Amino acid sequence: MSSSNNGLLRRGSRGPAVADVRTRLVALSPDHLGDRSGLGGPEIDAQLYDEALERAVRDFQQRQGLIVDGIVGPETFSAIDGARWSLGDRILTHTPGHLQHGEDVAALQERLNTLGFAAGRVDGRFGPNTERAVRSFQRAYGLPGDGSVGPDTFRAFSDLRRSVSGGSSTVLREQERVRRSGHSLSGRTVVLDPGHGGDEAGATVNGLREADVVLDLARRIEGRLTAIGVSVVYTRTEHTCPSEEERAALANRAEADILLSLHCDSHDHVDARGVATFFFGRDRRTSWSAVGESLADILQREIVARTGLANCRSHGRSWRLLQQTTMPAVRLEAGYLSHPEDASRLADPGFRDTLAEAVLVSLQRMYLGEDDTNATGVLHLGDLRAYLASGGH
Ligand SMILES: [Zn+2]
């Protein structure tokens, strides 16, 4: 955004900055913007922020996991600006003071994380964590470890794309470190917080009630957790709906290791869909849960890899439940009941099993921490059980 335009752009705004946003949106790939009707053409007043432009901005925000408000502020503008890059378009490198930012960086981070090189949060900014992960990747694959991503490193990524799949028990067996109690899930306490409850149904679409969907999901997660020796505590029953404060207080009294809050989303914008995770994070220096962030990231990746739900990413929030719990807490928004495809999948018990499996594996991976080198989307409960039963051999 030009320096002359510090304000937010919204419906009714007018000027060259509006025309600039419009041009950038028109140039985006269909991945980033679906409906672009009324965005361009001779009859359009390019400098006016009209209804069509607002619709396009909302669509873009939804796909990026941004707040869907139809307003272009600094965050949305920077996402629009970064969205034109795809991985391989330019050389990526860490430039302190002026971080490269874009979809290509986000794709790189996803790729590194999926391969087991911890690039940290997928935020589309090439910072020191991304550089460190690139260096480890390069060393592991016999490339000069210079930390910048040029043609050789791109080639290594695309070669690997074909080879990463399956083979989980072996991977686990090699990870002797799981045996250390610090890495084990067994003996821990997990609080499951199915949203809403009692008379409060949450989002309800075509008779499908959010409260029921997430309670059923919680039970499937509970079954898997208790099978490996984890204690599970619920914040509510079928018939109760405690406040967020009461839920947090209960989790604190239980001295739980983790709280997982389960919700589905809904939105009056019909295109809204996909999965998002949230952890406590308001200010990176002072109010930020690193463990919550790590679990939210892993969970997000595991669910996307296993279900193909649209990736609305993980986000720091200072919501009451996240703020008032003393243990790492993550809120999962597992798809939109208002989106026909998401809803029909959520109605399917088999799909909820897949979600439950993703939760279990994510919790285990979180405790593996730095030692977690598993590829995303390949571990299953059976592997963990067989591994634990074999005493880690
Ligand atoms: Zn909800």
From TrEMBL:
<dbReference type="Pfam" id="PF01471">
    <property type="entry name" value="PG_binding_1"/>
</dbReference>
<dbReference type="InterPro" id="IPR050695">
    <property type="entry name" value="N-acetylmuramoyl_amidase_3"/>
</dbReference>
<feature type="domain" description="MurNAc-LAA">
    <location>
        <begin position="248"/>
        <end position="364"/>
    </location>
</feature>
<dbReference type="InterPro" id="IPR002508">
    <property type="entry name" value="MurNAc-LAA_cat"/>
</dbReference>
<protein>
    <submittedName>
        <fullName>N-acetylmuramoyl-L-alanine amidase</fullName>
    </submittedName>
</protein>
<dbReference type="GO" id="GO:0008745">
    <property type="term" value="F:N-acetylmuramoyl-L-alanine amidase activity"/>
</dbReference>
<dbReference type="InterPro" id="IPR002477">
    <property type="entry name" value="Peptidoglycan-bd-like"/>
</dbReference>
<dbReference type="Pfam" id="PF01520">
    <property type="entry name" value="Amidase_3"/>
</dbReference>
<dbReference type="GO" id="GO:0009253">
    <property type="term" value="P:peptidoglycan catabolic process"/>
</dbReference>
<dbReference type="InterPro" id="IPR036366">
    <property type="entry name" value="PGBDSf"/>
</dbReference>
<dbReference type="GO" id="GO:0030288">
    <property type="term" value="C:outer membrane-bounded periplasmic space"/>
</dbReference>
<dbReference type="InterPro" id="IPR036365">
    <property type="entry name" value="PGBD-like_sf"/>
</dbReference>
<keyword id="KW-0378">Hydrolase</keyword>
